[in-house]
TrEMBL record:
Family as reported in the entry's similarity comment: Belongs to the peptidase S33 family.
Organism field: Actinobaculum massiliense ACS-171-V-Col2
Region listing for Disordered, in residue ranges: 45-68
InterPro entries: AB_hydrolase_1, AB_hydrolase_fold, Pept_S33_TAP-like_C, Serine_prot/Carboxylest_S33
Protein name, entry field: Uncharacterized protein
Pfam family, one: Abhydrolase_4
Gene3D superfamilies in alphabetical order: alpha/beta hydrolase (3.40.50.1820)
Sorted UniProt keywords: Hydrolase, Signal
């Protein structure tokens, strides 16, 4: 589907960066006139080695289980070897209001601490729909060795995701068709075709996953985290959440402030926004980052975007329009239409270290009508393999979780979002033309709102000045709302900052996880 919330609410790349880097590096070898530059900044070496200090009370002082849930809190995890890691499942209620009824299992993957252990550190890469378990495969890209020495690092698949009772809606062929769909005709004809596909998707989800759909929301997932905390024997939950993972972490702190330990929320989501406004603000964020990309491109040799910055943005839009009418060449018999091109392009806006490759990809489009790199990136972020199969259910889980958390946008809200974004040169109204949840069977009546987490331990919120997917204003809103929160700002580009923002960002956050010393509120770090 070429528009709507699915296109906009996809801040999920923390979990697939390692694959993107490999794809870009390989693809670059086959491109003519390639730009050169660093692919991946990485963590760099830490020069400080703070002395780790315990998190909270001793493990014997665990919190009491909520009423009716004692058997879930008392279970023991049966960890078994799974490759380089240890894996286990924890049983939780399908519906926490009926704990004696149906149950599901949540999949966890653990890398044990390699030094003196402080406790566990739970991870969520974002999405929604991202697999925390899969995130462990590229752990060095996220956490310094000091943190890995001090914590059992646990990635888990939230309910509805990956190996935790995954949401399934369509077969691979139909899912691929919907992902790549481009709509033509009059505006009314395009909207009718778009809504027909939304109905196909919704009906498929209801048919294949109807039992779990009402219970895959973030509140239920946060309750699962408290069960996991108790099962691994930790008195407090230590947590690192990126993007959507900040919403999950803030929801946990709202429900269990007394059980919250050290928590970093990087790339914050403003959960008080409705679906339409959220999509509009993300569209603005990507438009700003695209402008910065064009400025960067035009400062380099061999930039295919000529003239002024506005001229460059107009050229990108012209290619998108061309792809709609006359798709570019992809791989094999696949063509690159406007939907695929936009998805691949916005992928490269998540990290400015990708921009040299974006320049090369546009050069190939301009000189040879070859857009295969954008096709490859679009497939990669959607978890689509070369044979058309899917390696994960991120697309379906993303929609199911969003629709469980947010009510469908009203037509008035959609119209306002369209009016807000129609002046965006490159993306226009792509993110705001419809709402994926329009036909959803089990959406709430109100938006979640911002959380306060009264009485919880200090939490660190991190925002990036030019983050396209989660604008800095969202981090500021979350930090203002959360009790005892501090805000760290990275004045750089791309999505999220921890491990991307240099020592100024990394060292105080590492020190916080290791010692509990909270970074200075308002700390601002320059772009690296």
């Amino acid at each position: 589907m070429d528009s709507g919330r699915r296109a906009a609410v996809c801040p999920r790349l923390r979990g697939v960066k390692r694959k993107i880097v490999a794809v870009l590096a390989t693809a670059l070898l086959g491109l003519s006139g390639c730009a050169t530059g660093a692919v991946y900044r990485g963590l760099g070496g830490s020069t400080s080695h703070p002395q780790p200090s315990p998190v909270g009370p001793s493990p014997t002082q665990t919190s009491d289980a909520p009423s009716g849930l004692q058997k879930f809190y008392d279970q023991e995890a049966d960890w078994s070897e799974c490759g380089k890691f240890e894996c286990a499942e924890v049983e939780v209620p399908l519906n926490y209001e009926e704990p004696d009824a149906a149950t599901i299992k949540i999949f966890m993957k653990r890398r044990p601490a390699s030094g003196a252990k402080l406790g566990s550190l739970f991870l969520n890469p974002g999405g929604p729909g991202g697999s925390g378990a899969d995130m462990l495969a590229s752990l060095d890209a996220y956490l310094s060795q000091e943190i890995q020495d001090a914590y059992d690092v646990i990635g888990f698949d939230p309910r509805g995701v990956g190996k935790s009772s995954p949401v399934k809606c369509l077969d691979d062929a139909e899912l691929g068709r919907l992902m790549d769909a481009s709509y033509s005709g009059t505006p009314e004809e395009q909207q009718a075709a778009r809504e027909k596909d939304l109905k196909i998707l919704t009906d498929g989800c209801q048919k294949r996953s109807g039992e779990i759909l009402p219970f895959v929301g973030t509140e239920q997932a946060a309750r699962d985290m408290d069960v996991m905390r108790a099962v691994v024997g930790d008195p407090l939950l230590n947590y690192l959440g990126f993007s959507y993972g900040t919403f999950l972490g803030a929801q946990y702190r709202e429900l269990f402030p007394e059980n919250t330990g050290r928590m970093i929320l990087d790339g914050a989501v403003d959960s008080s926004l409705g679906a339409a406004r959220m999509s509009a603000e993300q569209s603005d964020g990507f438009e700003v980052e695209l402008r910065r990309f064009v400025e960067y491109c035009q400062s380099r040799e061999n930039c295919p975007l000529e003239g002024s910055v506005d001229d460059g943005l107009t050229q990108i839009r012209a290619w998108i329009d061309e792809a709609k009418e006359n798709p570019f060449e992809g791989k094999g018999d696949r063509k690159v239409n406007d939907s695929i091109l936009i998805n691949g392009l916005i992928t490269t806006m998540y990290d400015d270290t990708y921009w040299n490759y974006t320049i090369s990809a546009f050069r190939e489009m301009k000189d040879h009508r070859d857009a295969n790199l954008f096709l490859t990136l679009s497939d990669l972020t959607n978890g689509r393999n070369s044979d058309g199969s899917f390696e994960n259910n991120m697309f379906e889980a993303n929609i199911a979780i969003n629709c469980a958390d947010y009510p469908a946008a009203t037509q008035e809200e959609i119209d306002a979002a369209i009016d807000h974004t129609k002046g965006n040169t490159v993306l226009g109204t792509t993110f705001t033309e419809s709402d994926t949840c329009k036909f959803w069977p089990a959406s709430p009546d109100t938006v979640p709102g911002l959380f306060t987490g009264k009485g919880g331990a200090p939490v660190v919120v991190v925002g990036t000045k030019y983050d396209p997917a989660t604008p800095l204003a969202w981090a500021e809103s979350m930090a203002d709302a959360l009790d005892s929160a501090v805000l760290v700002t990275y004045e750089g580009d791309g999505h999220t900052a921890y491990s991307r923002g240099g020592k100024c960002v990394q060292e105080p956050l590492d020190n916080y996880l290791l010692t509990g010393e909270v970074p200075r509120d308002g700390l601002t770090c320059p772009k690296v």
